[in-house]
Automatic annotation (TrEMBL):
Molecular function terms from GO: acid-amino acid ligase activity
GH3 C-terminal domain: residues covered: 390-493
Keyword Chloroplast: no
Stated name of the protein: GH3 auxin-responsive promoter
Pfam families, alphabetized: GH3, GH3_C, GH3_M
Lineage of origin: Bacteria, Pseudomonadati, Bacteroidota, Flavobacteriia, Flavobacteriales
Length: 508
C-alpha cells in the first residue's frame, strides 16, 4: 500500500468524520444573512435597502420582494460597468482582483464577470470539499499519489486596467494551492499557453512522462485531447499511456451526451464525477457514487433561488419576467424544472445564471442540470427543453447503436410551414430520414405539448448528420478552443443561417 496515499486518504476520512454539516435550508438562511451584512454599505446594498431587509422577520421573503432579478446585461449595464471603471464598493465591498471572461452561448462579445478574493476562496474551499467526497467512492489509497490533468483555458491572464482577466478555469488554475502544484499537470508552463492546439500537442509529447490518475475538464475538449495523445503514441486507448487513470471530473456541460464516445477511448471504465463550476462560482458537485446528481454548495458564499421554468415567466430574450415567483430551497419540489437564480460573494444579486435545474433529492439538495433558459424551443408551441431533447437523443443512440455527442436545431419555415431542423454530430452513416422519423416519435411520446404542436403548426422533422468535429470548429471560430464553451442547442433564424453556411464550408 502506498504510504503517502494512505496518509492522505486517512486525513480526508478524519476530516469528513469531524465536520458536521447543517441542513441545506439552514445553511442557506445563514449565507443570505452573511451576504447582506457584508454588502449593506455598497452602492447596491444602499440602493436596495439591505439594512432594512436585515431587520425583517422573514429575510428571504423581504430580499425577494425588494431586489429585482438581473441577467448579465442588466447587472453589467447598471452596476458592474462602474466596477470595471475602477470604482469601489459597487455591488461588493472593494474591487475584484479578477474578471472572468465568458462568451456564453450567444454572440461574439465576451461577458466580464467579477471574481473577488472571497469567490476565489469559496471555489478553493468547495474544491477541497469535492476532494474530501472522493472517499465516498471506491478509490484505492495509491490514487492520492497520482497526478491530475486539469485541462482548461490559459492561466496566462491578461492585464486590463487594474484587473486580471481570463476564463474561470484559467483563473482557478492560477490560484491552485502551493501543496497541490506537484500533482498538477500539465504544469504551469504548458497551462500558460494561449494556443490550444499547441497546448494539446505539447501535452501529447509529454504524456508518457506523467502518471495521471485523474482528469478534469470539459468533455468535448477532454475527448479531443485524449484522441491526440492516443494518436501521437500510436496507442489503442488512453490507458496504454496512463494505466493508473481512474477518475474523470467533468464540468461545464452535461457528460451524458459524450459518454459513449468518451468510453471508447478507455481500456476499462473509470469513475466519472460531475461538477458545476461556472464563471459565477462553484455551485455544485457530485459527492456520492450511487447517483449522477450533484449536491448544491449551500454553505459557501452562494444563495440560491428557484423560479418555475414556465413559458409565461421567460421573456423572448431569455431573461425573466419580474413577476415570476421565486422559491427558496425549503419550497421546491422534486423532478420540476427551475430557472436557477444566485446571489454571491462576487456581487451578483438575484442573478439569472442561464441554467435550468431539477431536484432529484431535496433533503440532500441534489440537482441535475436540465438545460438553458435560451435553449428552449417554443416557436409553434412545442415547448421543448434541452432535457427532453437529450433524453430523445439517448434513445436514438440505443435504437441505432450510434453516438451523438453534439447537436443543434432550429424551427425553420419551408413554404409557409414550420419544421424542426436538427443537425446531429455523429460519425454514423445511418439514414437521416429514418433517424428523423424515430426522433419525432420519441418526442411525441415524451412530450404532450410537442405531440399537440405536431398535429397542428409543426409539420415535420428534418435531420442532417455531420461529423462532431464540425461543432468543435464552429466553437473555435466563434469563441475559443478549450474554453468554457456551451454549444448553442437551439438557434434563432439568423444564427442558424450562419451555422448552415459554416457547415457547407466544412463538408465541401
Amino acid at each position: 500500500m502506498a504510504i503517502l496515499g494512505s496518509i492522505i486518504k486517512t486525513a480526508i476520512d478524519l476530516r469528513g468524520a469531524i465536520v458536521s454539516e447543517k441542513s441545506p435550508v439552514e445553511s442557506q438562511k445563514e449565507v443570505l444573512k452573511q451576504l447582506l451584512e457584508k454588502a449593506k454599505d455598497t452602492a447596491f446594498g444602499k440602493y436596495y435597502g439591505f439594512s432594512q431587509i436585515l431587520e425583517s422577520e422573514d429575510l428571504e421573503k423581504s430580499f425577494s420582494e425588494k431586489v429585482p432579478y438581473f441577467d448579465y446585461h442588466q447587472m453589467e449595464k447598471e452596476w458592474w460597468c462602474k466596477t470595471q471603471e475602477g470604482l469601489k464598493d459597487i455591488s461588493w465591498p472593494g474591487t475584484p482582483t479578477y474578471f472572468a471572461r465568458s462568451s456564453g452561448t450567444t454572440g461574439k462579445t465576451s461577458k466580464r464577470i467579477p471574481v473577488t478574493d472571497e469567490m476565489i476562496e469559496a471555489i478553493r474551499t468547495t474544491g477541497i470539499k469535492q476532494v474530501g467526497a472522493l472517499t465516498n467512492f471506491e478509490i484505492p489509497s495509491d490514487f492520492y499519489e497520482k497526478e491530475i490533468m486539469m485541462l482548461g483555458s490559459s492561466t496566462n491572464l491578461e492585464k486590463q486596467d487594474q484587473f486580471l482577466e481570463g476564463e474561470i478555469s484559467g483563473i482557478s488554475a492560477s490560484n491552485i494551492p502551493f501543496w497541490f502544484r506537484g500533482y498538477y499537470k500539465p504544469g504551469e508552463e504548458i497551462a500558460q499557453m494561449d494556443d490550444w492546439d499547441q497546448k494539446v500537442e505539447t501535452i501529447a509529447k509529454n504524456a508518457r512522462n506523467w502518471d495521471i490518475g485523474a482528469l478534469s475538464g470539459i468533455p468535448s475538449w477532454m475527448e479531443l485531447m485524449m484522441k491526440k495523445v492516443i494518436e501521437y503514441h500510436d496507442a489503442k486507448n488512453i490507458h496504454e499511456i496512463w494505466p493508473n487513470l481512474q477518475v474523470y471530473t467533468t464540468g461545464g456541460v452535461a457528460f451524458q451526451p459524450y459518454e459513449k464516445s468518451f468510453n471508447q477511448l478507455l481500456a476499462h471504465p473509470i469513475i466519472v464525477i460531475d461538477t458545476y463550476l461556472a464563471s459565477e462560482g462553484f455551485l455544485a458537485f457530485q459527492n456520492r457514487p450511487d447517483t449522477t446528481s450533484m449536491k448544491l454548495v449551500t454553505d459557501n458564499g452562494i444563495y440560491f433561488e428557484f423560479v418555475p421554468f414556465k413559458p409565461e415567466y421567460i421573456n423572448e430574450d431569455g431573461s425573466l419576467s419580474q413577476d415570476a415567483p421565486a422559491l427558496t430551497l425549503a419550497e421546491v419540489e422534486p423532478d420540476t424544472d427551475y430557472v436557477l437564480i444566485i446571489s454571491t460573494v462576487s456581487g451578483a444579486w438575484r442573478y439569472l445564471i442561464g441554467d435550468t435545474i431539477a431536484f432529484t433529492d431535496i433533503e440532500k439538495a441534489e440537482i441535475k442540470i436540465t438545460g438553458r433558459t435560451k435553449f428552449f424551443l417554443n416557436v409553434v408551441g412545442s415547448q421543448l427543453s434541452v432535457n427532453k431533447m437529450e433524453v430523445a437523443l439517448r434513445e436514438m443512440e440505443e435504437k441505432f447503436d450510434i453516438r451523438i455527442p453534439e447537436f443543434t436545431l432550429a424551427a425553420v419555415k419551408i413554404e409557409d410551414e414550420f419544421y424542426h431542423h436538427w443537425y446531429l454530430g455523429t460519425e454514423s452513416k445511418k439514414n437521416s430520414k429514418e433517424i428523423a422519423d424515430a426522433l419525432d416519435e420519441a418526442l411525441k411520446e415524451a412530450n404532450k405539448n410537442y405531440a399537440v404542436a405536431r398535429s397542428k403548426a409543426l409539420k415535420g422533422v428534418k435531420v442532417t448528420t455531420v461529423n462532431p468535429a464540425v461543432f468543435h470548429e464552429w466553437n473555435a471560430k466563434n469563441k475559443k478552443k478549450g474554453g468554457q464553451v456551451k454549444m448553442e442547442k437551439v438557434m434563432g433564424e439568423e444564427k442558424f443561417s450562419e451555422w448552415e453556411a459554416f457547415v457547407k464550408t466544412q463538408i465541401e
